[in-house]
Write a structure and sequence with these properties.
Length: 293
């Protein structure tokens, strides 16, 4: 669907009270987002279909979005049709990676993640998914092999590494994870933070979200230790650090393979080959550090 078709689809929704103006919003690799104004009010319209190859199912995103709003973390869902969700608009600044790394930022972000993990399940309705990174890695490997990916020669090594990381990352606690903690999924309205975009939500280890937060936003080693201490409200001992770094490596491997799969499946006009190369370098560096620790 191109922009003109998307705008026409949005204009035709029955939830508007008057003629609307529609403007694209940046971001979104699994959906297209638009800012919609119908006079006094502004809303966000989010267009996206299921993407089974990436384990993105819109019924799950919708349930998680509603539960996150009920828990006080995310904007309200105002209207739903197949392929389209309309959200309350939050007048806020979108975070960049530098905001996540800024002094004092983790003291705001980590409690939000803890609330996601602990409170969202209380409001979740209907079937719920598990987002298990090691299953995703194995499934991506099958997709890459079956699709004739140029990266196929790397897959046996990836699977061996993933098996080792899965053994090292346990024992596992299970929480309800956001599972996509990019900087752009945090909004700051000046008074509080919001957490948005629940495409990959599902039950998971808390260490996956923490590892993703660190790897997606370039946290320093000292910041990673601080993050763990804030989350667990205790010093980070060697056993926890070992489990955490195993899950962080798995997070980076999954992101690398996500991009590899996107190279052969996505119609988006993005340089996935460059993104693959960037993430593969980051994964190899993290895994080397982990093996030498």
């Amino acid at each position: 669907m191109d922009d003109a078709q998307a705008v026409a689809r949005i204009r035709a929704l029955p939830c508007w009270r008057s003629e609307v103006t529609v403007a694209p919003l940046g971001g979104g690799l699994t959906n297209h987002n638009y800012l919609v104004s119908d006079g006094a009010d502004r809303r966000v319209a989010r267009l996206g279909e299921d993407i089974p190859v990436h384990h993105v199912l819109r019924f799950n995103e919708l349930a998680a979005s509603r539960a996150a709003h009920a828990a006080g973390l995310s904007p309200a869902v105002l209207h739903v049709e197949p392929g389209v969700t309309v959200f309350e608009y939050v007048d806020a600044r979108t975070y960049g990676e530098e905001d996540v790394r800024a002094p004092g930022a983790l003291e705001r972000i980590v409690p939000l993640i803890r609330r996601c993990h602990r409170e969202v399940p209380d409001h979740l309705r209907g079937p719920a998914l598990v987002f298990w990174v090691f299953h995703v890695i194995r499934d991506y490997a099958a997709t890459l092999r079956d699709g004739g990916s140029a990266h196929a020669a790397l897959l046996p090594g990836f699977l061996d590494i993933a098996a080792r990381l899965e053994a090292d990352a346990g024992p596992f606690d299970i929480v309800f994870g956001h599972n996509d903690l990019l900087a752009a999924n945090f909004l700051d309205d000046g008074d509080r933070l919001w957490l948005i975009d629940w495409d990959y939500a599902g039950f998971n280890s808390p260490l996956f979200d923490l590892g993703g937060l660190a790897s997606n936003n370039g946290l320093s080693e000292a910041q990673e230790t601080r993050m763990l201490e804030l989350y667990f409200e205790a010093p980070a001992d060697d056993a926890l650090l070992r489990r955490y770094h195993a899950m962080k490596c798995a997070s980076l491997l999954r992101e690398t393979m996500w991009s590899m799969v996107s190279e052969i499946t996505s119609a988006l006009d993005l340089d996935f080959a460059a993104y693959t190369a960037e993430n593969l370098t980051r994964f190899r560096a993290a895994h080397s550090d982990y093996m030498n620790s």
